[in-house]
Automatic annotation (TrEMBL):
SUPFAM superfamilies in the cross-refs: MetI-like (SSF161098)
UniProt protein name: sn-glycerol 3-phosphate transport system permease protein
Family as reported in the entry's similarity comment: Belongs to the binding-protein-dependent transport system permease family.
Membrane topology label: Multi-pass membrane protein
Domain ABC transmembrane type-1: 71-281
Organism encoding this protein: Limibacillus halophilus
Amino acid sequence: MGGPRFIKNQVYGWLLLMPAATLLVAFTHYPAVATLLQSFFSSGTARRPSKFVGLDNYAYMLEDPVFWKVLTNNLWYAVGTIPTSVAIAILMALWVNERLPLRGVVRMAYFTPTVLPMIAVANIWLFFYSPDIGLLDQVTRVFGFHSQNWLGDPDTVLACIIVMTVWKEAGFFMIFYLAALQSLPHELEEAGRLEGASRWYFFWRVTFPLLMPTTLFVLINAVINSFKLVDHLFILTKGGPDNASSLLLYYIYEVAFSFFDQSYASTLTVVLLLLLALIAVGKFTALDKRIHYR
């Protein structure tokens, strides 16, 4: 068992694993550990070197009203985007999975927002939301409504960002559901028809449970996406007005590159990573028993 052939296979296996492991350590594990360590130090300058401060950065974070504001915004943003994007993605996948005319064109139309650059998407929706000259104001004016500064009103700006995100992400999630639907055996649908099951009953009792592995994958990606929005905010609102549209990652970007407080930005990053890890563990724990693997 410990002969030359066994050793050769072990070395060969580790050599195959080495490139991926090196990239994983260099760009994932090492930055995470370095960020955690930096969160326990103060931000150093040329005249005042960094020093160990323990949990002072975390204590300051708990007293930071902007942090709680952007965290609340992010939670509302996640609640608004994740269920809506997933539900629309399932509906679109069910629709384009049917035999309908120009099915390929419809699929392409649904998927097109996904392949557009983020900056282009932000500029398109900036035109939609612009007061007076924007497309949305042009449409609402026909029905007698007054002009509205959609991105300048704290009551509407976050909802506008949510609508834009759903428009961009639903088509991306649709691709996964479409692939999952096409892998389901057709015998199940034929058996359902013979038993007289309605389309809604068949979907809820048969199709949707079989889509749970895909749903878990989509939910994890949707959660990650909901906490990593920066580009659109930079073009549309820059977090305003009064941090009404600022999200956690954008706040980290501001703290690190506008306020040059690397230590506090590291503290916020650690909290973001812990939050994502807890959500992921919770989802795997809650949904694992509901998943039907074939």
